[in-house]
Amino acid sequence: MKKIVITLLIGGLLVGGFILLTRDSYVISYTDLVKLPEVITEVVNPDSDIEKQKPLKNPPRYVKAVYATSWSAASTKKLAYFMNLFNTTELNAIVIDIKDYTGLVSYLPDVPQVKEYDAYEVRISKINKLIKMLHDNNVYVIGRVAVFEDTKLAMARPELALKDKRTGEIWRTNKDIAWVDPASREVWDYNIAIANDALNRGFDEVNFDYVRFPSDGSISNIDYPFYTASTTLKSVVIGKFFNYLATRLPRERISADVFGDVAHARIDIGVGQILEDTFDNFVGVYPMTYPSHYAKNFLGLAKPAEHPYEVMKYSVDHALTRLAKYYEASTSTPPFMTRVRPWIQDFDLGADYDADKVRAQIQAIDDAVILSTSTISASELKGGWAIWSPSNNYTVEALR
Q1: DUF4015 domain spans which residues (predicted)?
Q2: Spatial CB neighbours of 134, under 8 Å, sequence gap ≥ 6
Q3: Residues 33 and 119 in one domain
Q4: What are the pLDDT digits (tens) for 245-277?
């Protein structure tokens, strides 16, 4: 009887256009019976993802990551390109957009608010399967979450959005992007829910970007629904947010991006980021030390972009020195140490970035030192680096 039922089922599937078996006859052995349910499940629901994954048991001590948009991560051709990089160069990690600067989540998460706000676009249909494939190749997987720059959330929940004092409408940057208030606890929890979903799926780390106040556009015309400039410093708000993240998520699996100038600036540069506020709250701090982003005459250099080694080494030297002083002054032994993991420029801006300029930044990170006498070595505080190309095409010759 079992054989008759299965034969009819297979026949039906064949009529529907599915070819499960290439046999001259529909007689099935008992060996086939063991495997058949799994095959049928896949055919009945071809878009189903696999089970949620676990993080790597032995993550790399020194991360060397490449950045990928969600579109690239969803492309078979682009994934093959990345896998070739992992197999032929020193790269051992990937940073994938899971919530981009517009507020769109690149897969369907188990977060009710994301569904309610229609704040997702399924670019990566099988996120768990993607993580497994990368893990099977010993690739450390980092999910990138853009936090306060979020047009989707601002439009769905305008009471959380920054407003324009002149019009009362939602305020936007020069690139027509909306922001939500960095002081809103609800905004914090929303992004934590997305990050938690990613970690539960097996992402080894979640990297938070846009963890700051706006830096471009008509900033003087911003009306904040929650933040009050007359009573609270921006750095206090961002510092509290960092602490909040660390209490709600496993801090050994989260990281944060900061402006490159934050690595050496002793005061807030206007966006609320203070380097010391990241220490002990994150496994890694990623200064965006792109040489092209530094002002003219930085370090006396007319064109900082033309001097990637000097700019990178100065920035990382100062970040390491501040981190070393922090831990030397600590009265307790932390469960883990925050490490410096700079972003490297691999795009043409301010100069043509060839293999020599890209490699110069990596060499600068390797050569970076603690500028004061310390009982801690620089190598203890270095966490690797991540390389950024908006096009996701990388200068392979710069990678060993």
Answers
A1: 65-394
A2: 94, 141
A3: no
A4: 999 999 999 999 999 999 999 999 999 999 999
97 within 8 A of 144, measured Cβ to Cβ: yes
Range of the domain at 154: 52-227
Phi-psi region of 100 (alpha: psi -120 to 50; beta: other; left: phi over 0): beta
- Please tell me the distance from the alpha carbon of residue 285 to that of residue 288, in angstroms, as a whole number: 10
Q: Do 119 and 38 fall into the same domain?
A: no
Q: Say if residues 208 and 195 touch (Cβ distance below 8 Å).
A: yes
400 DSSP 8-state letter: -
Per residue in 317-364, pLDDT (tens digit) is 999 999 999 999 998 887 889 999 999 999 999 999 999 999 999 999
The answer on pLDDT for 44 being more than 50 is no
Burial class (CB in 10 A: 0-12, 13-18, 19+), 226: middle
Backbone angles phi, psi at 307, to 5 degrees: -130, 65
Do 10 and 112 lie in one domain? The reply is no
Residue 28 shares a structural domain with residue 130: no
Q: Is the pTM of this model over 0.90?
A: no
Domain boundary among 187, 208, 227: 227
Residue 344 is encoded by which pair of tokens?
Answer: 């490297």
- Give Dmax (Cα) for the chain: 86
Q: What is the pLDDT of residues 122-144, one digit of tens each?
A: 999 999 999 999 999 999 999 99
Asked whether residue 381 is assigned to any structural domain, the reply reads: no
* Residue 387 CA, distance from chain mean position: 12
Q: Are residues 132 and 106 in the same domain?
A: yes
Domain CATH code at residue 75? 3.20.20.80
